Automatic annotation (TrEMBL):
A Pfam short name: RabGAP-TBC
Designated gene of the protein: TBC1D10B
Molecular function GO terms recorded: GTPase activator activity; small GTPase binding
Source organism (scientific name): Trichinella murrelli
GO CC annotations on file: plasma membrane
Protein name: TBC1 domain family member 10B
TM segment ranges: none
Matches recorded under SMART domains: TBC
SUPFAM superfamilies cross-referenced by the UniProt entry: Ypt/Rab-GAP domain of gyp1p
Keyword Magnesium: no
Keywords recorded for this protein, A-Z: GTPase activation
Domain Rab-GAP TBC: 138-331
Source organism superkingdom: Eukaryota
């Protein structure tokens, strides 16, 4: 992990401031589009109003000049430190963020993962439950990037003669000017307090450049879909863990295999999964379900940041990594389980609901979740304990599809 080499390093405040065909065709699920990509983009982060018209070379050159001005109010008298995840914080008297897992345990877990890498096909075929168990315990940081690549299939793509040069080929192409401009506007917004993306940080603009190259390559591969703002945090999270090329192949797997249609125009898939989550809440958190239904709260109001960004804009970072460990192993079901647990803990009792008499208070509570329910061990234990079978998820999926088709026919009648 990039941040490991600089753990605990202190900084003065002025040292930083805030072609080949598609790997797989996206499976657009039947749904009536209700929300545009532009609406989702504005919800995630409002774009500047200026009309940019840069050439490809100008965009690359301008990355050298992004956010070079020091932060307002920066003071040399304040010291900052980089935590074990690479995030920059004001130095606390208590010292660095402690590592929860003892070093001896980490070393043993690392060896187990290395052994699995050496016999990966056999483990996937005959001992998948063992892999799932180890992902739920948390993948050791030293092998997390490699584990993610193996789990999602990126490692196979990178060693496949027909796929291994795909990124290099895409990266040589200029891309569509519209998507290039949209990507450029979002670069400085992605985790500005992380050492990889911080202005004037140790890595200067390396992180932003890599983020640009990754997202641009995606738009070249999928020009008809282009860029969705929800993709940038996902790509940035991958870049915090691994080199650019590795991150690209993992990103492709996320967008095409794990979350197909999530970032497509119309966002049919995210709307469909929102309805699926709402149906699951009826069984697993009825109090919260009834509250949302009475207040007519559309699932998309909370699904965008939770599912599209795979919780990387919602949860504390140690919790994010644990969720991603399980997500790469078990798929989108993990995102549903996390959401159900969050609803149970935030809107699962009458006392909690009394604090949310209107839609505004309810949505605000979901956007600003209580810190204690997002704590790593607390949340992960509840997610693992929650039973949500593939059969139940598929059954609800089919039911929601039928209901949506019926509503479409009713509207057309």
């Amino acid at each position: 992990m990039i941040s490991q080499n600089t753990e605990g390093k202190l900084l003065a405040a002025d040292e930083f401031t805030d072609t080949a065909e598609s790997l797989a065709k996206l499976n657009i699920r039947n749904a009536t589009p209700k929300i545009t990509v532009e609406k989702i983009n504005s919800d995630l982060s409002p774009s500047p109003n200026e009309n940019s018209n840069f050439s490809h070379d100008e965009i690359l050159n301008s990355l050298e000049e992004i956010d070079d001005q020091p932060s307002e109010g920066a003071s040399n008298s304040r010291l900052y430190e980089i935590d074990r995840h690479g995030f920059i914080h004001e130095k606390q008297l208590e010292g660095n963020d402690p590592i929860a897992v003892p070093v001896e345990v980490l070393r043993k877990r690392e060896k187990k993962w290395l052994d699995m890498f050496n016999s990966w096909p056999q483990f996937m075929e005959k001992q998948f439950d063992k892999i799932k168990q180890r992902c739920r315990k948390g993948i050791p940081p030293a092998v997390r990037a490699t584990a993610w690549k193996y789990l999602c299939g990126a490692q196979h793509c990178m060693t496949n003669p027909n796929m291994m040069h795909l990124f290099d080929m895409l990266n040589r192409l200029p891309g569509d000017q519209k998507w290039n401009d949209d990507i450029k506007k979002d670069l400085s917004r992605q985790f500005p307090n992380h050492e990889l993306f911080a202005r004037n940080g140790f890595y200067k603009k390396t992180g932003q450049k890599d983020l640009y190259y990754l997202l641009k390559a995606w738009t070249v591969l999928h020009p008809e879909e282009g860029y969705c703002q929800g993709q940038a945090p996902v790509a940035a999270t991958l870049l915090m863990q691994m080199p650019l090329k590795d991150a690209f192949y993992c990103f492709i797997q996320i967008c095409e295999k794990y979350l197909p249609g999530y970032y497509s125009p119309g966002l049919e898939a995210i709307q469909l999964d929102g309805d699926i989550l709402f149906a699951l809440l009826k069984k697993h958190c009825y109090v919260g379900y009834k509250h949302l239904k009475n207040q007519h709260i559309d699932p998309v109001l909370y699904m965008v940041e939770w599912f599209m960004c795979i919780y990387c804009r919602t949860l504390p970072w140690s919790t994010v990594l644990r969720v991603w460990d399980m997500f790469f192993c078990e798929g989108v079901k993990v995102l549903f389980k996390v959401a159900i647990v969050l609803f149970r803990c935030a809107l699962g009792s009458n006392q909690q609901l009394q604090r949310c008499p209107t839609m505004y208070e309810t949505v605000e509570r979901l956007r600003k979740l209580p810190p204690q329910i997002m704590q790593e061990e607390f949340l992960i234990q509840k997610v693992v304990a929650l039973h949500l079978s593939d059969e139940e998820l598929e059954r609800v999926h089919c039911k929601v599809i039928k209901e949506r088709k019926f509503k479409q026919k009713t509207k057309l009648a």
